[in-house]
Amino acid sequence: MSEAAEESRARAPARAVLRSPALVAALLAVLTLMTLLGSEANVGYVRDEGIYFEASRHYGAWLARAAREPGKANEAKVRDRYFAINHEHPALMKLAGGASARLLAKPPDPAIAEALERELAAAGKSKKARRKVAWKRELAAVEGGRIPILREGAAMRLPAMLMAALAVALLYLGGHRLGGTSAGLLAAGAFALLPRVLFHASLHAFDVPIATMTLVVALAWLRALRDWRWGLALGPLLGVAIAVKHNALFLGPLLAAHLWLCLGLRWWKTGERPRLAQIAPLPLWAMAVIGPLVAVALWPWLWHDTFARVAEYFAFHSEHSYYNMEFFGRNYNRPPLPVAYPWVMTWATVPSVLLVLTAIGAGVVLRRAFTHEPDLREPETTPSWLRPLPTGGALDSSEAGLLFVGLAAFPLVLISLPNIPIFGGTKHWLTAYPFFALLTASAWSWLWSAVMPSPDEADEADPPKRWRALAPALSLLLVLGPSAWASVHGHPFNLSQYAPLAGGARGAAQLGLNRGYWGHAVVPLLDEGETLPPGPVYVHDVHALAIEQYRREGRWPGWKRSGVSQAKAALLFPERHMVRDTVELRERFGPAPAMILTLDDVPVTVVYTD
Asked: Could you tell me the keywords of this UniProt record (predicted)?
C-alpha cells in the first residue's frame, strides 16, 4: 500500500466523525445556545417572568437548604414555605432556574445587601423582626452563585435556552433521517428561526421547554413501539414533561389514539387483527403509572396533601382567566372566542414558504398512511405487550408521519375551541412547531426525490453534479431566509413580529392583529434612563416583580412606580383595550410623546413626560 493510501486510510475515521450527524447536531445546539445567551439581555422581562424569577429564588433557596439541612428542609411545613409561591404551576423549570442562579448568578446590586443590613439594624433585638430579615436575606442570595458569570436573570433563563438547543439538535437528527443533511438543517431552522420561537426561547418560562419535551416524548414513543426499553423510559420522560407544563397531560391520550389508529389501519389494509396485548401495551402502562409518579417526585409542593393539591391544580387551570387579545381590530376577553384565531395567527406569524412545506409534508405522509400498503417485512419479533409494532416507528414510516400530523394539528384544534381561554397568543401552540419542522423535512425529501434524480439514474440531460450539490444549499437559503431575516430584524421585539405575507409588523397593525401583551418592550428605555426624568414614573404594564429583577441587576433607573396623577413620566404599551390608558395619559402629559419605540414604525412602547 502506498504512503498516500495509508495516510488517506488513517484520516478516514476523522472524516467520518466530522461528517457525523451527531456532531453537526451538537454544533447546532451550541450555536443556538450561544445565540440566545448573546441576545437575551435585550429581551425585556415579561409579566410572567417576574413571578417565575421570584419563585425560582424561593426554590433555589430550598435546594441550598436541602444541601445543608436535608432533614429540616424536607419537613412539610418548612418545604411548603418555599414552594407556596406560584404553586399552581409545575416546579421543574423554576427549580432549574433557581439551581442555575445558585451556581452561575452574579451577586445582586450592592444596594440590595445594604437595604437588608439597614433592615437588620432597625430590627434591633426583636427575634421576630430578625427572623423576617434572615428569611429575606436567604431568598436574596446576596453572595451570588458559586461560579458568578451571568446576570441572575440570564442564569435563570439558561435552562430554557438549553431546552431550545436540545430541540434544535433533535430536529436536525430527525430531519437528517428523513432526507439527509439539508433536510436536517431545514428542520432545525424551521423551528429555531421562527421569530416567536426565538423570543420565547430567551425567557425563563415553560413554552419552549414543553415544546422540546413534547418532541422528546414523541420520538421516544416511536422507539417504544418496537423496543421495550424505550417503552419503560417513556414513563419517566412523560413525568418530566408534566413537571415542565400541563400541556403534557394530553400526550398520553394522544399517543394511545395514535397507536390504535395505526393498528386499525393495518387491520383495514391487511386483515391483520390487533392482539389484545398490542392495544394496551407496556408504553401506555408506563406513561399511566410511572409518568404521574415522576411528575409528583419533581414537584415538591405535591409531596404533602397530594390529592387535594392535585385537585387544586386542575381547578385552577379549568378556571383560568381570559386575557385581552386583539384580533382583526376587535378586543376579545370573554368566550366565545374566534375559532379562526390560532389558524390565522399561525398564517400571520410563520413564513408562508414553511407553511406550504408543512402542508405538503402532511399530504405526503397522510397519503402514505392511507393509500400505501404497510411494511409487511417479517418482524424480528412477534407483536406483543412489550413491542406493539415491531416493524413500525422509523421516522420515515407511515406511523411516524401520522404522529407528526396529529401533534402538529392538535394544539391548534384545541385552542380553536370557543371556550378555551386565550391568555398568551401563539405561545400556546408552540408545541406544534417542532412537528411542523419535521413535516417540512418530509416535504423537502419528497420534493427533491421528485425533481432531482439520484446519481445512479442521472444522464447527460440532467443537471451537472456541481449543480445537484449546490441546489439544496441555495434552496435552503430561500426557504429559511424569510424567518432568519424577520427574527434578526424584529429582535428584541419579536413578540410583535409578523410574517412577510401578513406585511410584517406594519401589515399586522393595519389588519388589527395584536402587537404585544407582556409589558416587556422596555430595555432600550433603561439605557436611556438618565435622560428621562428621575422620580415617579407610571410604568403601565411592567410587572412589579419584573421591576424588582431589573433592580437586583442594577439595570433599573431611578424611577419609582407611581400613579398617573403624580408621575413625571409614563410608559404605555399600545393595545386595543388600552384606549382608556391612552386618553388618560394624553390628558395628563399632552398628545405628543417624548419617545416611541417602534418595529417598522409600529409603536410598541410610548413614553410621555412633563
From this structure: Cell membrane, Glycosyltransferase, Membrane, Transferase, Transmembrane, Transmembrane helix
Among the residue ranges 419-433, 457-471, 472-486, the one predicted with the least confidence is: 457-471
Chain segment 540-557, per-residue pLDDT in tens: 999 999 999 999 999 999
Strand partners, 327: 330
Q: How high is the pLDDT of residue 395?
A: 84
Task: List, in sequence order, every residue forming a beta bridge with 537; answer none if it has no partner.
Answer: 561, 569
316 vs 188: which has the higher pLDDT: 188
Edge-to-edge strands of the sheet including 602-609? 559-561, 535-538, 569-572, 602-609, 595-599
pLDDT digits (tens, 9 = 90+) for 315-331: 888 777 777 889 999 99
Phi, psi of 502 (to 5 degrees): -85, -5
Q: Angle at Cα 104 formed by Cα 103 and Cα 107, nearest 5°?
A: 100
**Looking at residues 279-285, what average pLDDT do you find?**
97
In angstroms, the CA 519 to CA 344 distance is 24
Q: Which residue has the cell 433603561?
A: 526
Task: Specify the DSSP element, H or E, that contains 327.
Answer: strand 325-327
| pLDDT more than 90, % of the chain | 77
Q: How far is CA 126 from the centre of its chain?
A: 46
- Cβ–Cβ < 8 Å for 439, 409: no
Q: Measuring CA to CA, which residue among 180, 239, 221 is closest to residue 448?
A: 180
Confidence of residue 452 (pLDDT cuts 50, 70, 90): confident
Position 517 scores a pLDDT of: 77
Distances in Å between the alpha carbon of 246 and those of 156, 312, 315, 544? 21, 13, 13, 26
The tens digit of pLDDT for each residue in 475-528 reads 999 999 999 999 999 999 999 999 999 999 999 999 999 988 788 999 999 977
* Secondary element (H or E) of residue 561: strand 559-561
Tell me the sheet residues that pair with 503.
none
| The three grid cell numbers given for residue 361, joined into one nine-digit string | 409534508
DSSP calls for 79-120: HHHHH-TTTTS-SHHHHHHHHHHHHHBPPPPHHHHHHHHHHH
Q: Which residue, 450, 391, 366, 535, is CA-closest to 179?
A: 450
End-to-end CA distance of the chain: 86
Name the grid cell of 188. Answer: 432545525
Q: What CA–CA distances, in Å, run from 459 to 453, 454, 463?
A: 9, 10, 9
Residue 354's closest CA among 164, 163, 193?
193
Q: Which residues of 1-18 are buried (b: 16+ CB within 10 A; e: fewer)?
A: eeeeeeeeeeeeeeeeee
CA torsion 397-403-405-406 (nearest 10°) is 160
Please tell me the distance from the alpha carbon of residue 462 to that of residue 307, in angstroms, as a whole number: 67
Q: Can you give the three-state secondary structure of 372-411, one letter per residue?
A: CCCCCCCCCCCCCCCCCCCCCCCCCCHHHHHHHHHHHHHH
- Whole-Å CA distances, 228 to 233, 279, 351: 9, 15, 40
